[in-house]
Amino acid sequence: MKLSKPKYIFVTGGVASSLGKGIISASIARLLQARGYAVTIQKLDPYINIDPGTLNPYEHGECYVTEDGAETDLDLGHYERFTSITTSHANNVTTGRIYQSVIEKERQGDYLGKTVQVVPHITDEIKRRIQLLAQRKEFDIIITEIGGTVGDIESLPFIEAVRQLRYQLGSRNTALIHLTLIPYLAASGELKTKPTQHSVKALLENGLQPDILVLRADRPLSSDLKRKVALFCNVDANAVMESVDVPTIYEVPLMMHSQHMEQVVLDKLDLPSEQEPDLGSLKAFIEKIKNPKRTIDIALVGKYTELPDAYKSISESFVHAGAVNDCKVKLHYVNSEKIDASNVEEKLGKMAGILVAPGFGSRGIEGKIEAVHFARTKGIPFFGICLGMQCAVIEFARNVLNFKDAASTEMEPSTTHPVIDLMEEQKGIVAKGGTMRLGAYPCSLQPGSKALAAYGTNLVYERHRHRYEFNSEFLPDFEAHGMKAAGVNPESGLVEVIEIPEHRWFIGTQYHPEYKSTVKKPHPLFVAFVAAAVAYTEEQKK
Length: 542
Description:
Blueprint: E1 7-13, H1 21-34, E2 39-45, H2 57-60, E3 64-65, E4 71-72, H3 75-83, E5 92-94, H4 95-107, H5 118-132, E6 141-146, H6 156-169, E7 174-181, E8 184-185, E9 190-191, H7 194-205, E10 212-217, H8 223-233, E11 240-244, H9 252-258, H10 261-268, H11 280-290, E12 294-302, H12 312-324, E13 327-335, H13 344-348, E14 353-356, H14 365-378, E15 382-385, H15 387-399, E16 407-408, E17 418-422, E18 437-445, H16 450-455, E19 459-466, E20 468-470, H17 475-480, E21 484-488, E22 495-499, E23 506-509, H18 524-541
Parallel strand pairs: 1-6, 1-7, 2-5, 2-6, 7-10, 10-11, 12-13, 12-14, 14-15, 15-23, 16-17
Antiparallel strand pairs: 3-4, 8-9, 17-20, 18-19, 18-21, 21-22, 22-23
């Protein structure tokens, strides 16, 4: 279907953060896609950073990178994984970016001497950003997730902008979905609706009446409870949905569909729903996740392991690849700061595969190098991503090429063997935000390589986020001793993929393949890595 003008859905949250607005937004988009509508999703984040690129992963989880090089909130990863929609700079907007734009316009004299205020100048800029995706004339429905919680000081300009936009666009062109928490009090054995009532009251105080409520709970909700919520919150009884805990996030669209979520949304937007949704492929995918034929153990070696969301795209890529291989990947998060030669066998010896994760800085680097050495010498399937690939290069240089001080100039600027060095175009750049090599670049894969066998095509486009690269001056030394450049950028010659052909499966990529793995299209390198780990496990049993 193609509408002349897009309709808008706004998703807000109340009571507590981290209830899953991103998953709900992605689930609604998936269901509307199945109904034949072209959908996109954007995230409005209330923090003052221009983007999350400079945030510590412990602060906000992983930084996701889009095809066009935007450093964004991790929820955009959920949007792409659920829907296979390619997101862009326009799909993630922060308070920092809004204020930056308004201040730049003020400095240029765009406001003609007027006093610049939150209303109307900041809210007008927010509304402009919300509607920016409509200019592409590709989408029937634009879903906008508002970060934070209703009642937060930081969120108020966004809430006000949504109020204004709903008034300007008309009640049949927008829908507001509010996600709240129904907590269970073990002491009294009750589910409590009062937090939801207060959350909706906070919305009403800001001029917004939700059309649909999604009640997050750890157990099923009774019809009486949902009717009570509907009555106290001025919402139709059929527009109160429950979102209970499920074994996998990919079941959420099915749970919403069972409650007729997309039908209620379409009714609110005055849109037809003639096409019955085909969710067969999603159901088959979930069936494979829930009923694997085997389980394998893979170590994820990194320095942010206390917060799994720091590696969210990687963990979800393993879910996708596991389903393809009819197995469950049990990820073991291993802190690289706690690995050394004395305990590496204990920590990694029982693993079917070892992935060394991306990162920045020197902390935990020697533990990552030790993990690479263990995987290489013990013949365990290995996958290195970004810094993980660079660690593989350093380990090989030290222990095979005998370059004992081999290092990256990021950690050791004075090394005599800078096998990893700052990219030429990065030299002289001082600013940190958004200045790395970001987004999709081409990579040409070499004939006979395992990477080519995995992809099935010799030219791929993958997303990057780095400043340092393989120093090609040393490439002849590496290739003479068994580590090959399996993929290079056809324009710059940058080494994108390294392999050890004699190893059962040893691949490192300078790019981040995890950013492009989706339910519909699991990433081929993760699929091949898991397949190698399965084969390794079977061999160990003999």
